[in-house]
Amino acid sequence: MRKTTIALAAFWAIATATQAQTDNANKVTVNGSVQSDILIPQEDEKIGTGEYKDWGLTNTYVDVNLKSKYVDAGVRGEFMEYPLPGYEKDFKGWGVPHFWVKGKIKNAELTLGTFYEQFGSGFILRTYEERSLGIDNSILGARVAVTPFKGVNVKALTGRQRRYWDWNKAWLSGADVELNVEQWSQRMQETGTYLMLGASFVNKHEKTEDIMVDQVHKLNLPENVNAFDLRARLQKGNVSVLAEYAQKTQDPSFDNNYIYRKGYVAMLSASYSKRGMSILLQAKRSDNMSFRSRRSMNGTSSFINHLPAFTMDHTYSLAALYPYATQPLGEWAYQAELGYQFKRGTALGGKYGTNVKVNFSHVHSLAKTPRSITTTSYNEYDGTTSSTQYHGQGTDGYGSPFWKWGKQTYYQDLNFQIDKKFTKQFKLNLMYMNQFYNKTVVEGEGGMIHSDIFVADGKYQFNKKFTLRGELQYLATKDDQGDWAFGLLELSMLPNWMFTISDQWNCGETDLHYYMASVTFNMGSHRLQAGYGRTRAGFNCSGGVCRYVPASKGFTLSYNYNF
Q: Which of 561, 498, 558, 497 lies closest to 528, judged by CA?
């Protein structure tokens, strides 16, 4: 019944939009996409795939959008009745979870249905879709965006947040204002000075529930949790500075063991760039900033906000073997990056120039001092009293001096990259990475893993149609499963074909090979990829958000179409 209701609402949205265009004699454009990822699984005890009940597994998405001068509308259907590994528990099913209608007139727009939104850096609100992580925390409700005056942007919204095939019962409401001050000053525009000032507010209204501290005492849970965000960005010439601060009122939840401490996050980011050089410096302190639309949930779903990880997103397989996930209960995070291009004709630049990049990131725990409360009970039968001391649940949790570090390093990464073109045909990228990964903090157990990673990535272009790319990677460590090696060859044949073979080998403890071969065909808006091989169990991460992916083996087929 629920899926039928959703589908009818979606069709109504499209019909309303289409009728509006007919009435106003406006041109309607239609676009969308189809994405279908299929696995024909094979069981493999060596890598721990487990057993499969179905011969084929698929995650399939179909988006259709209508756009015009005054009205836009769209729907997305999802079919995961037989989902890919890692999606079985919550995503199994099918339906139309995404449908919306947007009315536009002059400097205002109103959206009804499901939508995504982000305030500032996302510290108090970020809803988005990331299919590879199994995240879609869209909001079902209403959103209005208005530009009442030049340089002033106002947004307001209300609704409920998606959780897989349902919506959480908590009601979210919020507003955001951004002022672009330079648009009011001719002098600032002439000197290339830009100043943005922003402020946001989000309220979560969630009914109370019975959470017991013991057999007698029940937590008094707040039905309203408020979050605030203030930010400023100043850009002058090649320099840009962003400062942002957010705070959340008491929000006892599963994540923080139902304590009543407020949440905080402060960030400072500065960058400098000119031709041939770039510098990035960032620092962030977050404390008890897990913010969910359902307090009793854990995992990657139901998050209202997002705390970006100040660590480099690595694309090489072994560099991404131990990815860091932001710890919302608290961390100090730092990142610094320097990029420099040695000019052509110099000793280090050579004939074609040389690009060098150095990145350093460090994430550390906060210093915390536990706090407790003492309750006194009166026994009416014998007239005695007794005292009980509580730690954690029901208390404000802990104290935490702002500048003081804790005792644990969560993550550290120092990497160097050299990108060098030797001839018109041959280009080489080299990387060295020194990494410390606290597996106990990120995954629950495993201790500190220290590794050295070496990468060589070369590309040779035979002619305008044929290009061969190869990767050699090695991860050396005495911890966890020991050393890993990775090799890849990729042949591109423009404009249609690409052939890839790779192998990821644990040459340390297990002696297992995770081989993969694939062929990709592109034609216009169509992309078809077929492959066969093994996928290692591990964490897939993006922007500090991670999801565990179990091991798998079999034939894969992926189809993408944009229209």
A: 558
- DSSP-derived 3-state class of residue 253: coil
Say how far apart CA 296 and CA 288 lie, in whole Å.
15
- pTM, 2 dp: 0.88
Question: Which residues 6+ apart lie within 8 Å of 314 measured at CB?
Answer: 320, 323, 433
- For residue 495, cis peptide bond before it (omega within 30 degrees of 0): yes
- 402 bridge partner residues: none
Nearest to 544 by CA among 346, 289, 309, 354: 309
Instruction: Report the C-alpha gap between 420 and 308 in whole angstroms.
Output: 31
Mapped onto helix, strand or coil, the DSSP state of residue 435 is strand
Q: Based on the number of CB atoms within 10 Å of its own CB, is 407 exposed (0-12), middle (13-18) or buried (19 or more)?
A: exposed
- Grouped pLDDT means (10 residues each) for the chain, 563 residues: 47 48 66 96 92 93 95 96 87 94 95 97 95 91 96 97 93 97 93 96 93 79 96 96 97 92 96 95 96 85 90 93 93 97 89 94 94 57 53 80 92 97 95 97 93 98 96 97 97 96 95 96 96 92 84 96 94
DSSP label at 524?
Answer: T
Burial class (CB in 10 A: 0-12, 13-18, 19+), 467: middle
